[in-house]
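Checked the freezer inventory, then went back to the computational side. Two predictions to log before the end of the day. The first one is the construct we discussed on Monday; recording sequence and tokens without edits.
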Amino acid sequence: MTADDLAPGRVAFQGAPGAFSHEACLDLRPWDEPVGHETFQGAIDALLNGDCQCALIPVENSTVGVVEPSSTLVRQAGLVAITEAWRPIRLALLGVPGARLSDVKTAESHPVALQQCSIALNEMGIAALEVFDTGGAAAAVAAAGDATRAAVAPARAAEVYGLSVLRNDLQDFSDNRTRFVLFVAPEA
């Protein structure tokens, strides 16, 4: 099977709207309905139980290497890769409207995203806080309304959650990219 053989439907991803995986779904399968899940296991389960026709999973990042646990879970489930795409990852620091960069004490995001900007966060004296997802971090920061909290997420997430971009290009390396793979369930 190839990506061209896959009928339009629902594509599972790990994260919330505004996450990098959500953006990748919109770019790679714009005719599909992206369906977010809090965990990689949740996205894989949605594929295996037939709720979604495919799952788009990040498996490797140019800065931090293999994305765990997604790669292990994919292997364990025996998923079949049908296409892949390397996407540039540009991290932004997002805060509530009116917040200044100097106000921020903590930045929350997915652990892999935080690893991709650890040098920048350390230089600014901002503590990293791991949460389940980049988009989910943006949603939590928006809901909290606290100027001392920020999210590390795509700049597009600022629009989704009504946040302000406090700093663009937060990633430690300008060539930061992630390999996303589109998987289908193994044939019975």
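The second is the one RB wanted added to the comparison set:
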Amino acid sequence: MTTLPLPRNFRELAKALGTSTLYEASHLPCAVDSAIRPIWDGAFIAAPAFPLECSPGDNLSLHLAMERVPRGSVLVVGTGNFMAGYWGEVLTVAAEAAGVVGLIIDGGVRDIAAMKKRQFPVFARGISVKGTVKASAPSVGMPFNFGGAHVAMGDLVVADEDGVIIIPQAEAARTLAEGEARASKEAVMMQQLTEGSSTLELMSLTEWRSRA
């Protein structure tokens, strides 16, 4: 399969469409566990993935990733859902210097005020003051299953207040195009609703009027 290139404005396009529209347009099992949420209101990410896995309570993989991650990437970090403060202000500053544009992690983070002040987008399972050791690195840059969605280097990650999705690189351009088409169709529908049409009529569900 030939992978179509992403449009140059893919970040702006993904932000305008949002994760819900893109998820529906993808027709793929690309939604991440809904427990992974933004740590500050308004956080948004649309970037190629750089996947890595940490051992429970160990963030060595994150430090190794800072020397390997391509600029413009988002870190997608598996921890086995272990709650600890894998990430804080020091790694945020290091990430910004390395050109990292955000973090998605199924574990915990800390130094929330600092990340909010710096406007560094982070989506995490929770917040934890507990520190971590640096003794093992299961994988850095290798694909794995993250919160119910497969992630590999270069996949398109989009995260906003509705949730996190991971679109395979080969399907990203198609999904964005179908997302635009879906958004245009919904815009017409919403105009028709303001003019008096009903959702039952517009979605061809009128037969249910007599059944309910």
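For RB: The helical segments are 10-26, 60-65, 89-98, 112-118, 169-194, 199-202. The mean pLDDT is 96. Let me know if you want it refolded.
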